[in-house]
């Protein structure tokens, strides 16, 4: 059965929308100082399309939770090849007991530029690395024994 537009409006929480915008700013700041174990300093950049997709997905996953997005713990990971680097942990609202955990797995852009940029010895010591628009979100409810929910985008 399809939900009508007014029904979908009932699920929209303006507070979660603002909270998610602030969360995405925090995610970008965390990625900007993420240690990836490389010799050169790197800054991970989220393309605008990825930012919008992640925000939409996090809001969708939070709408069925008792505290909405405020009850989320967010783990940030960056996948590069077969390695997955843990880059940060964020309690969306530290004053709320978490009800669910989201693991956001982002991927480095696998196009040619990230592969060859390490060949240049001269240049800035601070190298920006762009993330791919593909990502995965793993949702785990902390108050239930339900199975994990894995969303691949």
UniProtKB/TrEMBL annotation:
The lineage of its organism: Eukaryota, Metazoa, Chordata, Craniata, Vertebrata. GO terms for molecular function: 14-3-3 protein binding. Keywords: Apoptosis, Cytoplasm, Mitochondrion. GO terms for cellular component: mitochondrion. It comes from the Eukaryota. Pfam families: RTP801_C. Signal peptide: none annotated. Coiled coil: none annotated. It comes from Centropus bengalensis (lesser coucal). Belongs to the DDIT4 family. One of its GO terms (biological process) is apoptotic process. This is DNA damage-inducible transcript 4 protein.
């Amino acid at each position: 059965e399809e939900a009508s537009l007014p029904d979908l409006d009932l699920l929209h929480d303006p507070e979660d929308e603002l909270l998610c915008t602030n969360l995405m700013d925090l995610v970008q700041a965390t990625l900007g100082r993420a240690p990836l174990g490389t010799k050169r300093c790197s800054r991970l950049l989220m393309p605008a399309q990825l930012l919008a997709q992640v925000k939409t997905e996090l809001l969708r996953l939070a709408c069925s939770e008792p505290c909405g997005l405020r009850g989320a713990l967010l783990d940030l990971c960056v996948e590069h090849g077969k390695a997955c680097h843990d880059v940060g942990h964020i309690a969306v609202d530290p004053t709320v007991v978490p009800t669910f955990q989201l693991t956001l797995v982002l991927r480095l852009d696998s196009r040619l530029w990230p592969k060859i940029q390490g060949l240049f010895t001269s240049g800035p010591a601070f190298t920006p690395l762009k993330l791919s628009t593909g990502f995965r979100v793993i949702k785990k409810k902390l108050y239930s024994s339900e199975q994990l929910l894995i969303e691949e985008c």
